[in-house]
Design brief:
The protein is an all-alpha fold and about 525 residues long. It is about 65% helix and about 0% strand. It has 21 helices and two strands. A two-stranded parallel ribbon has the order 1-2. The longest helix has about 30 residues. The protein is globular. The relative contact order is 0.15.
């Protein structure tokens, strides 16, 4: 990979116009701009979604006169809404487009976020955190949008970066919320007023991000979401490929000309193609995009199997009962679900084992777990893409990597739970090492998701994301009922055993369904 790929206009797939590199530093490129808003939008949402926990252990708990059980209950409630929203967001992305769903969730979720300062008791906290959980559903359009703009050779990296940098909002909230709170207290505000004013910061960021996303970004690389099928068909025709005849493995050299002449098996002549290009306004962008050279077979697979279809009840049902989809639900339940549950209690765990830290310092150490997503989740995607290319585009390599990350995560959770460290460097080191495998597993999972039922990417992404939240609920309940929500060590090793078991349960299933068109 050349260094210039970080800012240069990327090479694109000639059929779906997906980029084959990620221009991180080029927000003037539509690919760079969508990449930025994918991760930044999810980071803002994650920050707002987890705005309560950094201040909940001491300040909010004391101000609202909450018990430890009520705090644990609020963590569970927060995940329940997100579970349903993620499940619904997948088909919604396939129906309305991920950009509209993404921005809609940010703007709708900002309403309960803005009302959070009105909370005055445990019941109000439950209601507030439930509806703020809408923001957690933004992960699904984040991944579907990213998948729609980046091709199979880099989609694992792109999805892992957008998801990982977005997940870092879980670390950002543990750093920013206590810092803003402390600054307000230093200015003379009481604790009860200061924590409420602190919510203004994520509120402004969330609203601004949602509006900017609608104004500055497109639905797809080819334009409007409603025209995605039309573009794929026209791009096929413009490159001399007829969908009906039997394809060959000839390579099409694009842009500018077609090196192989149309034969008796089909395809338009070069003159017909050029005439069609000039008359078709939808394909004007082919003149300035640098296109990759791919075979006719792959062109047809992309056009037939990788263009997202409008969801129907029967199609959704088939995708949901697929063993491949179930594999992603279970493994993401373990990785992201575990991350969510740990995110909610880690500050309290540090405060319990190291009382001298206090609320702010305990939150700062807990923030490390979330901030590691900046590196660890992208690492999972990068390694997955590297294995995919090194094994000759063998999708099994991506699946094996998912299972390996899951089993290593489980082993680390068991180790932390059995040791229950009271030595701060040991605790920090073990949590960091566990986070490497856990968060890399998140990235590895969504590096494989785009290959599975690509015509229903939103449905697969949504159900997988919902599986993550289901895991968060299940694991939060485990934390809740371990010695009334205070025996964090025991919960860690119990979750570790569950993680290993679920990762191995469907490891034998083929990574993509037999006979699937596209996604290989």
């Amino acid at each position: 990979m050349k260094l210039s790929c970080l800012w240069a206009a990327p090479e694109v797939n000639p059929i779906n116009r997906k980029a084959r590199s990620v221009p991180f530093l080029n927000i003037f490129s539509v690919y760079g701009r969508v990449f930025f808003f994918s991760w930044w939008g999810f980071m803002a949402a994650f920050w707002a979604w987890y705005a309560f926990p950094p201040l909940l252990t001491h300040t909010i708990k004391n101000n609202l006169h909450l018990s430890s059980a009520e705090v644990a209950n609020s963590n569970i409630v927060s995940l329940c809404a997100t579970l349903f929203i993620r499940f619904l967001a997948g088909p919604a992305c396939d129906r309305f487009g991920p950009r509209n769903v993404f921005a809609g969730l940010l703007l709708i979720g900002s309403i309960p976020l803005g009302l959070a300062p009105l909370v005055h008791d445990a019941q109000g906290l439950y209601i507030s955190r439930f509806f703020i959980g809408i923001l957690g559903g933004s992960f699904v359009p984040c991944q579907v949008w990213s998948t729609g703009f980046f091709d199979k050779n880099v989609v694992g990296t792109a999805n892992a970066l957008t998801g990982g940098w977005g997940n870092a909002g879980g670390g950002l909230t543990y750093f920013v919320m206590p810092a803003v709170f402390d600054s307000l207290v230093a200015r003379g505000y009481s604790g009860g007023v200061a924590w409420r004013l602190t919510f203004i910061v994520p509120l402004i960021v969330t609203i601004a991000t949602g509006i900017a996303m609608l104004l500055l970004c497109p639905d797809t690389p080819t334009g409007k979401w409603s025209e995605r099928h039309l573009h794929a068909d026209r791009n096929l025709a413009s490159h001399g490929v007829n969908a009906s005849p039997a394809p060959t493995d000839d390579i099409v050299d694009v842009p500018g000309k077609i090196t192989d002449k149309a034969g008796s098996t089909g395809g338009n002549s070069i003159h017909e193609v050029e005439k069609d290009k000039k008359s078709n306004q939808l394909n004007d962008h082919t003149n300035w995009d640098h296109e990759a050279a791919i075979s006719r077979v792959e062109m047809l697979e992309i056009a037939k199997g990788e263009v997202v279809q409008k969801p129907t009840w029967s199609m959704v049902a088939r995708v949901l009962v697929s063993p491949q989809t179930l594999f992603h639900i279970l493994t993401y339940m373990c990785s992201f679900g575990c991350e969510l549950a740990i995110n909610a209690v880690l500050g309290s765990y540090y405060a319990k084992n190291f009382p001298s830290l206090g609320q702010t310092n305990a939150a700062n150490w807990a923030a490390m777990f979330g901030f590691l997503n900046l590196v660890t989740r992208p690492l999972g995607g990068v390694v997955s893409d590297a294995l995919y290319r090194a094994t000759g585009r063998n999708v099994w390599s991506k699946k094996i990597w998912v299972v390996a990350c899951g089993c290593l995560t489980g082993a680390m959770l068991i180790l932390i739970g059995r040791l229950d460290p009271h030595h701060l460097p040991t605790m920090v080191g073990l949590v960091a090492l566990m986070a490497v495998f856990l968060e890399a597993g998140n990235g590895a999972n969504f590096a494989l998701v785009p290959h599975v039922h690509p015509h229903a990417n939103g449905v697969v992404s949504g159900t997988t994301g919902a599986g993550g939240n289901l895991g968060g609920v299940v694991f939060a309940i485990i934390f809740r009922f371990m010695d009334a929500g205070t025996d964090y060590a025991k919960a860690f090793w119990v979750i570790g055993i569950i993680t290993i078991g679920l990762n191995l349960s469907l490891c034998w299933v083929a990574p993509v369904p037999k006979g699937q068109i596209g996604g290989h």
